[in-house]
Amino acid sequence: xxxxxxxxxxxxxxxxxxxxxxxxxxxxxxxxxxxxxxxxxxxxxxxxxxxxxxxxxxxxxxxxxxxxxxxxxxxxxxxxxxxxxxxxxxxxxxxxxxxxxxxxxxxxxxxxxxxxxxxxxxxxxxxxxxxxxxxxxxxxxxxxxxxxxxxxxxxxxxxxxxxxxxxxxxxxxxxxxxxxxxxxxxxxxxxxxxxxxxxxxxxxxxxxxxxxxxxxxxxxxxxxxxxxxxxxxxxxxxxxxxxxxxxxxxxxxxxxxxxxxxxxxxxxxxxxxxxxxxxxxxxxxxxxxxxxxxxxxxxxxxxxxxxxxxxxxxxxxxxxxxxxxxxxxxxxxxxxxxxxxxxxxxxxxxxxxxxxxxxxxxxxxxxxxxxxxxxxxxxxxxxxxxxxxxxxxxxxxxxxxxxxxxxxxxxxxxxxxxxxxxxxxxxxxxxxxxxxxxxxxxxxxxxxxxxxxxxxxxxxxxxxxxxxxxxxxxxxxxx
Length: 479
Known about the structure:
Elements: E1 11-13, E2 24-28, H1 29-32, E3 35-39, E4 62-64, E5 68-80, E6 83-87, E7 97-105, E8 112-117, E9 128-132, E10 138-148, E11 159-161, E12 163-169, E13 177-179, E14 183-185, E15 190-194, E16 202-206, E17 211-215, E18 218-222, E19 227-237, E20 240-253, E21 266-271, H2 277-285, H3 289-304, E22 316-322, E23 328-332, E24 336-342, H4 343-349, H5 355-374, H6 385-402, H7 421-434, H8 438-448, H9 454-462, H10 466-477
Parallel strand pairs: 14-20, 21-22, 22-24
Antiparallel strand pairs: 1-2, 2-12, 3-5, 4-11, 5-10, 6-9, 6-12, 7-8, 7-10, 13-15, 15-18, 16-19, 17-18, 19-20, 23-24
């Protein structure tokens, strides 16, 4: 049994059919109704399986190593599907679905085509596009047949998508609210306005840590301690009840202590390998992995952001040690981050290194992967995959270099600034010494620039063309 717990997507849709002469309120049945899930190819990469299509975040994704696949959702009762939505993944636009069919069935055997789309594209990453089902039908079983465009620039034909929604009509008092501000100072008042659908006759606000005054169905609140605060709204009407919780939606800052409200995520350590020489060595050198992660996090986020209100908030960071070919990777979404280390790499590549050097290398990798967790990612579709890769890996190595954990490597002359990792990272580090708050501002371009490219981001921060700066940097390397 599967049930999504993310925020309800509210849509009010007007339909011209006689049976639906008035506006109706739609809700995402994958949020609130129980269902089972099937897929032609359910899991290619751990933590990027088909279940991620229906989790609590549009920033996770389902990745298939096939160019086309189907995903089936089986409900316990029939619903009339009026709309559906697809959300693009946070990277690799070439892997987006390009063509698809939405099919429905009552018995799971006889299928009707509810909608068909060809040559679709997404304008940005994590973009949700909604489609109307012209010939809406009562169905218990829904199947998406998805296909991407073909071989990508990486030589694969992978398909990926972040989220799927299915919308049916309801009379329930779907809970929703607006805030006039999301970031406030200590004791500053913020107003929460009830915007719930289907006319709830009773509402209840639950805001732990708040001083609250009610104003009809609305609320005015303030806080005397810095931090992140969650809001829950419960609603009732004759059709039933609903509840909506937005976690950490209000940020309260002490302007004299901009990092006082920082809340570190829970750290979970999973040692899948404890027997190899590399695993035993990591456990010996980093006996308290949770403490190491927390210490790096506290030092890292001020290098990317100005205060705690800007930092992505994770509920959990999972550290996983496993025997694998890849040195390390970061996975998960904006709620739950996973970092995996390779015990094989430690066993085979670091065997002859002294403990001090191995500890230094492991902490450097931790800095790099945690930066991936906290850095921003370009949202515009204008940047090429090469530029996006250079930004993501370059920023991770920029922070690692400036933190002092890349001293075993040196910058080398190159024809391009788009190599990623140390090639880009040392260039960005050189720029950070010339331009104040470069790390903050360059990271922010990922969301501030509507037509993001690597070159545009450099010029936005420095006022100079990247070609000119690269020539100056290369000239210094060859002195």
